[in-house]
Amino acid sequence: MTQRWLARPPIRPIGQSEFHRLRAAFRHEIGLWRCQGDENDPHIKVWNYRIGSTRFLTHIGLGDVHFGYFFGESMVGLISITLSADIGTVETLMSHPGQQGAGSMLIEHAVNALPSIRMLKLVSLDASRGFYERLGFVRAGRAMELDVTRSDAWQRVDGRWRIAAYVNLRGYLAPGRL
To answer: Helices (H), strands (E): how many in the chain?
Structure first.
């Protein structure tokens, strides 16, 4: 398969009916990625736990706005957000465990695609808190909150909010012609 560089990540909005169809397809596909073999192998245990956690997320959360991260025709990540005044609540954020960076790019995309929100909120599993903290989320009781205007983890570049760690990333690989 050939690949090409894109200026923006391959993320697009998803309508409600497409959301249900894609979520079911993602649930099925992610289940196929479970490792077979020695269940006592720590690498297999960790991988299968990540697969199981991601698959579990496909059963919860239905927000007002959805974005999918695609690699060709396959969806490798999904974010669903409920909007209330100027706050967006992340209902679901899931990505294929083998697709590093998809979750971060979905958060970045949502921040820029929904300029009327001043804050993103979410409830995180304990195992995921470090990930969200690296993106600038701070703990607020059981929830976590992100205000990009007050976070050192974010920078404004060329009129867009960027995760500071990715500011020098100038392109995104996608399947297709060079």
So the answer is: 4, 11
